[in-house]
Amino acid sequence: MLDPRKLRLLRELAHRGTIAAVAEALTFTPSAVSQQLSALEREAGVPLLERTGRTVALTPAAHLLVEHAQAVLEQLERAEAALRALTEGPRGPLRIGAFPTAARTLLPPALAGLPPGLEPMVTEIDPADVSAALRAGELDVALIHEYDFVPPITDRSVETHALFSEAVFLTQRTSLEEARDDPWILAKPGTLCHTMTIRACQAAGFEPRARHHLDDFDTVLAFAAAGQGVALVPELAARPPHPGVRLTPLPISRRTLIAFRRGYGGHPAVSAFHQVMAGMTVFQSS
Hints:
InterPro entries: ArsR-like_HTH, LysR_HTH_N, LysR_subst-bd, WH-like_DNA-bd_sf, WH_DNA-bd_sf. By secondary structure, this protein is of the alpha/beta class. Helix content is 40%, strand content 24%. The chain has a 6-stranded mixed β-sheet with strand order 4-3-5-10-6-9. α1 (4-16) packs across α3 and α2 packs across α3. The longest helix is centred in the N-terminal third of the chain and has 28 residues, at 60-87. The protein is globular.
């Protein structure tokens, strides 16, 4: 019978690409990962890896096995969650990931509303990194966001539920076309906020001229108020309004979602967090 622990390593290799990356993410040594994957090959009875020097690639049989591994691991998550729900209430550590705006504005009141037996442990994380952190067991649940113009960034191992949607504002101007020749304050390359701004401007027919790269929206608004450029800012990040910054809503939205490992939503701690977040007034969509 195939070992689920080894299947998990194969799934991570499919996502991360190298044995070294899998070892680092799951706190193994590279040699231990290699040994476990070799043992999985023997259990499967077919070659799973094509080795060329220090690089490896998954064979067609390995890709097929990864598809089945996702279903197997999801069922195991569901079984564990059901057992926890049967034998205990929401208690113990709950590792929560959140993007900075959510950590600042949403989590303080949410954490105060959790059952007293839970011990929340919060880590700020970019939504693009959440799938890997959930798969590796570094997080139990996370708040992520999605923008128009940017495709979803979670993979098949992660289940998401929408919480609310908010408008995206342009600072100091009334339209993107009016801001065509302005200097821009962009998020750092590689973030969803950066990609959204670039693509929104491209859809309006121009490439934004970046002057600053800043991730903290309070700093972005302060720079905008000081005449250092224009920016796109989600509604939640503009609460309360910054003095000296004019905000114009655009036909662009940002959606906040809760994310957890597929099959794990019934875990008492994750379910309790989900219920608290869904019950907050800010999540009542218009």
